[in-house]
Amino acid sequence: MSIRVGIVGISGFGGGEAMRLIAGHPSFELVYAAGEGSAGSRLAERFPGAPARFADLVIEKWDPAALPPLDVLFASLPTGTSAEALARVPRNVKIVDIGGDHRYAEGWAYGLADVWPDRIAGRTRIANPGCFPAATLIALAPLLAGKLIAPGHIIVDAKTGISGAGRGGGDSRFGYAESNENLVPYGLLQHTHMPEIAETIERLGGGSAAGLVFTPHLVPMTRGILVTLYARGRATTQECLEAARSFYAGRAFVRVTDRPPQTKWATGSNLAFVSYAADPARDLVIAMGVVDNLGKGAAGQAVQNANLICGLPETAGLDGAPVWP
Amino acid sequence: MSIRVGIVGISGFGGGEAMRLIAGHPSFELVYAAGEGSAGSRLAERFPGAPARFADLVIEKWDPAALPPLDVLFASLPTGTSAEALARVPRNVKIVDIGGDHRYAEGWAYGLADVWPDRIAGRTRIANPGCFPAATLIALAPLLAGKLIAPGHIIVDAKTGISGAGRGGGDSRFGYAESNENLVPYGLLQHTHMPEIAETIERLGGGSAAGLVFTPHLVPMTRGILVTLYARGRATTQECLEAARSFYAGRAFVRVTDRPPQTKWATGSNLAFVSYAADPARDLVIAMGVVDNLGKGAAGQAVQNANLICGLPETAGLDGAPVWP
Amino acid sequence: MSIRVGIVGISGFGGGEAMRLIAGHPSFELVYAAGEGSAGSRLAERFPGAPARFADLVIEKWDPAALPPLDVLFASLPTGTSAEALARVPRNVKIVDIGGDHRYAEGWAYGLADVWPDRIAGRTRIANPGCFPAATLIALAPLLAGKLIAPGHIIVDAKTGISGAGRGGGDSRFGYAESNENLVPYGLLQHTHMPEIAETIERLGGGSAAGLVFTPHLVPMTRGILVTLYARGRATTQECLEAARSFYAGRAFVRVTDRPPQTKWATGSNLAFVSYAADPARDLVIAMGVVDNLGKGAAGQAVQNANLICGLPETAGLDGAPVWP
Amino acid sequence: MSIRVGIVGISGFGGGEAMRLIAGHPSFELVYAAGEGSAGSRLAERFPGAPARFADLVIEKWDPAALPPLDVLFASLPTGTSAEALARVPRNVKIVDIGGDHRYAEGWAYGLADVWPDRIAGRTRIANPGCFPAATLIALAPLLAGKLIAPGHIIVDAKTGISGAGRGGGDSRFGYAESNENLVPYGLLQHTHMPEIAETIERLGGGSAAGLVFTPHLVPMTRGILVTLYARGRATTQECLEAARSFYAGRAFVRVTDRPPQTKWATGSNLAFVSYAADPARDLVIAMGVVDNLGKGAAGQAVQNANLICGLPETAGLDGAPVWP
């Protein structure tokens, strides 16, 4: 049985990765692609390596009133630009919004698929978590659920590859010559992802996350997120690892490792890696989370969510091993 | 039907990529892995993102006398080290040698699969082309077959990502700090791949390749090969492109593009891209070829060859789109 | 004695590098800086690491009618935008034009300083060579002067770091995520630098350069140019090396090496490295040239030219060793 | 007046950078270089871009009993290997030890030159701070001195370029293909730099640093360190910035910036950049420090210390602007 899917935002990195994953998906058929910068082009002009069966699909200008018959729409649009248009998509078209406009919005399920799959199945409007929140919350969930850390004093030192900034019109700050060999902190104490993380910590941990600190950094690499999290708690390293192994038992995409995870372990995959190091004497738990910002942090998680809402196996189209080296 | 495959040289980049491709292959089952550096480890220790069903496979010390029942063995060993051991592998085990010891060796078919699939099907000992020769010969084959260039005066200016140098014991020349932001020509007029290229040019072009010039360069990127080829001929750009489109019509993995190909178009895939620019007035044909050195240049081509000798569809397990960006 | 210098185009990479070199120059004092993107800013806002004595210089909007008293103006403007404005600079202000508008223009000396210092000293309008021509011509000059190669059939396979594309408004093709791990040929058979190279080959070699082939490639690194040159000639490797050592005897910035030069040898310096490999039996001479595209390829050469026209030692302010690694 | 200096450990990154800085120093003359891997070579073989006047210096095997007459010896040897040998260096030879064997050792001054210049001048045995400690302590010193943060609960999330791992025999973990596009935390809760940082915090802050947490990460870039520090305190951002501006008033190498510093601001220089962001309501002060790990983190600081102990201007040979981009 073929499920007809579309992508809006195909010119961007998230939309392009969704295309790649759909290309390898056993049930999804790409019947629609829309994008600002590349409207009017054949898909193969934009993606010379696209599968031959997609090559002649013409990228359209995004218009929710002119959709072909679709089962699922993946939306990967800049935050702040999609709310009105997505509201006009027919109700019978399921939507997975990779962008940031519907996280904790009314009528939308929050698609943290590895933690809350049951809240996603059966829904038709899914807001994919942000890339930083995905990495952060997957690492924190077992600790918060097990009351091993306090929700009130969590520090998130987050590092992302530069594709996390989007293709965005070619801002010269993200140009190769200025980004290469450069490590850049930004958005201190005011990053747009903070409320989403705080809200989810509170839902997971049953207490205020008012003390949350979130410091993102741009790292000179294309893909990958590592979050290093500092929390207060009295658990040992082993207790944290066991809590995580138990929490994610039977879940396909989260791997709990004894040694600190590296971003390259996840590149090109939908995997998340978590690990922990604790020192009860210092009231300290360090949690680490690694994802590919375009995989689990965007298109991979989106396909996982689409699988859940279509009643497919959660891993359909997502079992590719990471690309290494 | 499941085909039992093994990999020797799993610790290296070519062996690791073979593992990744086998993980996504519909008919191959990995039952054996051997490697020098990682013998005794579970596969998941070496490859934290390996598929769960491979995780507990223990990497063995390579011993051709102690193989389990196997249908196909992928060998990815340093050139110069494998001839004797591979000779001891039972005849009923098909071998695809990714290493350099059997190219144009007696009893071995030369596995330039996109050009000569018929010479490969039915054989049991396949020597995979080198990564530079693969990129070079795929770009040249249509021109040589169509007599659009002379075989005698070809200049190959070749550029490779650093994984092409192998993991090789950590030579500090390939260390990050010394390789990054560095472009390094090497092996001038004496590179080990020259005879293989010359031999194949002669078979394709029907004349001496004695004037062949081959200059490799190390480029600060992990994966990817681009060869820029300068030949003498009077064809136009269009005639070259048409010759290539005709030559590769119906072939799955070679794409002929109007614009110059970029290495990133192929990353993580088994695709090859070729393009041409000619100036008859200057007796000049420029040909360009792009591959992923670990894909079409190593493990991708090896799986394609294995498909051919096992009677499977040539594209089985190889239809993943490239990873971009 | 202090020489008052100005930079127009301070926001770009070439202008920024000129500022760095002037900061370390014993005789030059920076009294004027103009730039499009950063007009109105203090220099320290644009360059947080600028010398303290420059920090409060306010970047002005470029206006040739509103210059302060100046001895030398370094112009680093996009090609095609500077001819009219530079014509309005007072005649008593010497100009070194790093941009491309005055190479072989009437009244302008061509500033190939390592080859033709005597044609530069005493002049007041100097057109700095382009970055690709600088690397190419420094490597070719000894061979052409010694008649070791024919001027008519030279192939230039050129590779540049991405700063060579300029800051240029943030074209997303030069964005980090799209440029990293990517090697891109461009401008085949029609690059803007071809006439400049051909003209100079003819002046050096005494014959037509009509057969010149020039193929540039973008390499994922910030700085550095390597040109690999293929010419026809019957000299041996040793004869080429000796010709170059003799040609550049006593010259401070060109180093002739036995082994192939690497781009990182020159990073941050005004050095050029050349080497040769020849095979008389194949009528082949390979020449290699390495420069930092912002050093010898732009601002370094410009300061060298300014030294020559100001009657200073040629190496003033340019004796910094390359940055390694 | 010329001061005769030597370098032991010239083959490593720290020793090589010391050579570069000495090349540009107005008073230091390099008369001795020793190194393990390159003993017997001319300096120009190891460093093709070395100044011509150093080119023919022969690198010797390190032997403290066979030193030529020297005024200052820079030692850049692997930690754990130098104590005995350096003890045998004649007392009249001043030593600046870039390695880790003498930090807080008896008879050695701790060379945190921007903070404690007066404790260094007049001494003859200086232990250069480690690269992580340098960045961390320069950022913390004004806060600790001003009692704006508590010394007991400081979290150091540290990020370093890969040259920080040294050339070290080519460990394949630091190979290009494995390090590129990879971000790697390591040494959690047990890094070798912790005691040095804790000791200095206590000296600066007047209280126990027992709660210190230090988490280093390897970032895919050659040079640069950024430390992001989380401390408890009730100061505002402005109060922190003012404390730092006051603390470093008149100091040449530390720059206090309003916006978060980026590693590339410091590349190739002896500068340190610090900035702060605080939220009194959350009892939080974030401090950031940026250095070039081979500059202020190693050879730059070493030359600064050598200037201090030789009675030279602190900035001699160190006023080069950073290399950008």
Automatic annotation (TrEMBL), chains A, B, C, D:
<comment type="similarity">
    <text>Belongs to the NAGSA dehydrogenase family. Type 1 subfamily.</text>
</comment>
<feature type="domain" description="Semialdehyde dehydrogenase NAD-binding">
    <location>
        <begin position="4"/>
        <end position="123"/>
    </location>
</feature>
<protein>
    <recommendedName>
        <fullName>N-acetyl-gamma-glutamyl-phosphate reductase</fullName>
        <ecNumber>1.2.1.38</ecNumber>
    </recommendedName>
</protein>
<keyword id="KW-0055">Arginine biosynthesis</keyword>
<keyword id="KW-0614">Plasmid</keyword>
<dbReference type="GO" id="GO:0006526">
    <property type="term" value="P:L-arginine biosynthetic process"/>
</dbReference>
<dbReference type="InterPro" id="IPR058924">
    <property type="entry name" value="AGPR_dimerisation_dom"/>
</dbReference>
<dbReference type="Pfam" id="PF01118">
    <property type="entry name" value="Semialdhyde_dh"/>
</dbReference>
<dbReference type="GO" id="GO:0051287">
    <property type="term" value="F:NAD binding"/>
</dbReference>
<keyword id="KW-0521">NADP</keyword>
<dbReference type="GO" id="GO:0070401">
    <property type="term" value="F:NADP+ binding"/>
</dbReference>
<dbReference type="Pfam" id="PF22698">
    <property type="entry name" value="Semialdhyde_dhC_1"/>
</dbReference>
<keyword id="KW-0963">Cytoplasm</keyword>
<dbReference type="GO" id="GO:0005737">
    <property type="term" value="C:cytoplasm"/>
</dbReference>
<feature type="active site">
    <location>
        <position position="131"/>
    </location>
</feature>
<dbReference type="InterPro" id="IPR036291">
    <property type="entry name" value="NAD(P)-bd_dom_sf"/>
</dbReference>
<keyword id="KW-0028">Amino-acid biosynthesis</keyword>
<comment type="function">
    <text>Catalyzes the NADPH-dependent reduction of N-acetyl-5-glutamyl phosphate to yield N-acetyl-L-glutamate 5-semialdehyde.</text>
</comment>
<dbReference type="GO" id="GO:0003942">
    <property type="term" value="F:N-acetyl-gamma-glutamyl-phosphate reductase activity"/>
</dbReference>
<dbReference type="InterPro" id="IPR000534">
    <property type="entry name" value="Semialdehyde_DH_NAD-bd"/>
</dbReference>
<dbReference type="InterPro" id="IPR050085">
    <property type="entry name" value="AGPR"/>
</dbReference>
<keyword id="KW-0560">Oxidoreductase</keyword>
<comment type="pathway">
    <text>Amino-acid biosynthesis; L-arginine biosynthesis; N(2)-acetyl-L-ornithine from L-glutamate: step 3/4.</text>
</comment>
<dbReference type="InterPro" id="IPR000706">
    <property type="entry name" value="AGPR_type-1"/>
</dbReference>
